[in-house]
Design goal:
single chain; 336 residues; alpha+beta; Cathepsin B, Chain A; seven-stranded mixed β-sheet; two-stranded antiparallel sheet; 9 helices; 35% helix; binds 2-acetamido-2-deoxy-beta-D-glucopyranose; zymogen
């Protein structure tokens, strides 16, 4: 039995090695130089040759897919081999980290009166001094903490006149009792429940580490509060979200970001993006209409650093529940 298993294993290993060789033979010189350029551009370093080989294979495969998408030319968005193009599936998974749940946290839904107000055709808070620079979550599934801080930062700044950025690390380290799981995911509303009870430190006092460490919240480093909040819609009504964005500011949302990794520019619109299941938390910071494609879009703030997408942002087709954007749209209504 044991021997058989061993033989089977050896056969499999040989097959894998064969495939590896095959892959390398199929690779053209162009791809080798693309890898060298990529490595230099993103300052990639590797522990050893084997590790580099693995990364290179991932890169070459991803880069082929990226080229294929861009050359097809039918799409309203472009991809690029960004800093994540040599990351493994598991690592790309860690870039997300929202806990999709059917046990929704109860909260009021914004009232119909507000929704009847007239709002501008386009809003873009990226121009506001109350929107912090795009942050980078690194290899920690903490997207939900960034989605939690941005709307509070913005509203507090609108109230006080000064932007004080808030601590995501505080939420990673301290909000487990509220259902969050540090670097393994969480939800904005769970974070806000924590903030309501405890408070939130400033980013300066409690800087980002990108890994779960001991809770070090200190009342003397208080940076903001959120006491009530609401859903913009519970019926996938993107018009309601639009009014809330215009009237209140940034709105935290959940999305399916499975195919966002290599997004570069344009209006993201994909039939493979789920309109029901989500795996990532981000923030809507504006909306508009693209004159070229005639598509309505959301301006969505990500936490994958300023090098990703359009300066850290993605334009997502609006009005078709693209990537389930209307599933869990929440915003603070008091506190700050
Ligand atoms: C947040 O605001 C609420 C309501 O004003 C207050 O009860 C709570 O103590 C505040 N939290 C902090 C940490 O200041
Ligand atoms: C998802 O898309 C399908 C197919 O277009 C549609 O029938 C369904 O209503 C959509 N669901 C949501 C929640 O948007």
């Amino acid at each position: 039995m044991k021997l058989q298993a061993l033989i089977l294993f050896a056969t499999l290993a040989a097959a894998v090695a064969q495939e590896f060789l095959q892959e390398e033979e199929n690779r053209d010189a162009n791809e080798d130089s693309e890898w060298e350029l990529y490595k230099a551009k993103h300052k990639k370093r590797f522990k050893n040759k084997d590790r580099e080989k693995m990364r290179k294979n991932t890169f070459v495969e991803n880069n082929r897919g990226i080229k294929k998408h861009n050359q097809a030319g039918k799409s309203t968005y472009k991809l690029q081999p960004n800093q994540f193009a040599d990351w493994s599936e598991a690592e790309l998974e860690q870039l997300k980290g929202e806990i999709d749940t059917d046990n929704e946290i109860p909260a009021p839904v914004v009232s119909g009166d507000i929704l009847r107000q007239a709002v501008p055709d386009a809003v873009d808070y990226r121009k506001s001094h109350c929107l912090a620079k795009v942050k980078y979550q690194g290899g920690c599934g903490s997207c939900y903490t960034f989605a939690s801080t941005t709307p509070i930062e913005y509203q507090r700044c609108m109230k006080t006149g000064t932007l004080v950025t808030l601590s995501e690390e505080n939420l990673i380290d301290c909000s487990q009792k509220y259902g969050n799981a540090g670097c393994n995911g969480g939800l904005a509303l769970r974070s806000w429940n924590y903030v309501k009870d405890v408070g939130l430190n400033t980013e300066e006092a409690y800087p980002y580490q990108g890994e779960e460490t001991m809770c070090e919240y200190s009342a003397s480093n208080y940076g903001g509060n959120v006491t009530t909040w609401a859903y913009a819609t519970r019926t996938n009504d993107e018009e309601a979200i639009k009014v809330v964005v215009a009237k209140y500011g940034p709105v935290a949302v959940s999305v399916d970001a499975s195919n966002w990794d290599f997004y570069s520019s344009g209006i993201f619109s994909s039939p493979t993006c789920s309109n029901t299941t989500t795996n990532h938390a981000v923030v809507i910071v504006g909306y508009g209409k693209d004159t070229k494609t005639r598509k309505d879009f959301w301006i969505v703030r990500n936490s994958w650093g300023p090098e990703w997408g359009e300066g850290g942002y993605i334009n997502l087709e609006r009005g078709v529940n693209m990537c389930a954007i209307s599933k869990r749209a929440v915003f603070p209504t008091s506190g700050f």
